[in-house]
Specification:
This protein has 116 residues and is an all-beta fold. It contains no helices and nine strands. Strands 1, 3, 6, 7 and 9 form a five-stranded antiparallel β-sheet that branches. Strands 2-8-4-5 form a four-stranded antiparallel β-sheet, with no helix packed on it. It starts with a strand and ends with a strand. The relative contact order is 0.44. The model has no long low-confidence stretch (mean pLDDT 91).
């Protein structure tokens, strides 16, 4: 099976961010990027996080990125990518993006992966 790159988009909303990409059993994905777009600049100190939710169980879940958007250089357009080493998701793993969004800004997120 050839490698293929695809993007998984969230539904745009004003609630808390809870975007999850689940890898189908039997497949492996390499994480390329995760993005979050906010319609306004947060004034409340809240972190957005990216977590690998491991199929192997909660003990193996790993937060791989956390950023307080209130103090970010560019709080409305944020892109994250693995720095230095590739990160892989195996069948049943999920990549989760979360943000409390108490100010209820409209937001959208996107996860880009490559099937390997």
């Amino acid at each position: 099976m050839a490698n293929s790159i695809f993007k998984h988009n969230s539904t745009q909303t004003t609630g808390a961010i809870a975007h999850s990409l689940v890898v189908p059993v039997g497949q492996t994905y390499r994480i390329i990027t995760a993005t979050v777009k906010m319609a306004g600049t947060p004034t409340t100190s809240e972190n957005y996080t990216i977590t690998i939710n491991a199929n192997a169980g909660e003990t193996f879940d790993t937060e791989i990125h956390s950023l307080d958007l209130q103090g970010a250089t560019n709080p409305t357009d944020n892109i994250w990518f693995p720095d230095g080493y590739p990160l892989y998701l195996e069948g049943g793993d999920a990549l989760d993006i979360a943000f409390p969004n108490t100010e209820a800004f409209t937001w959208a997120s996107q996860i880009t992966v490559e099937r390997v």
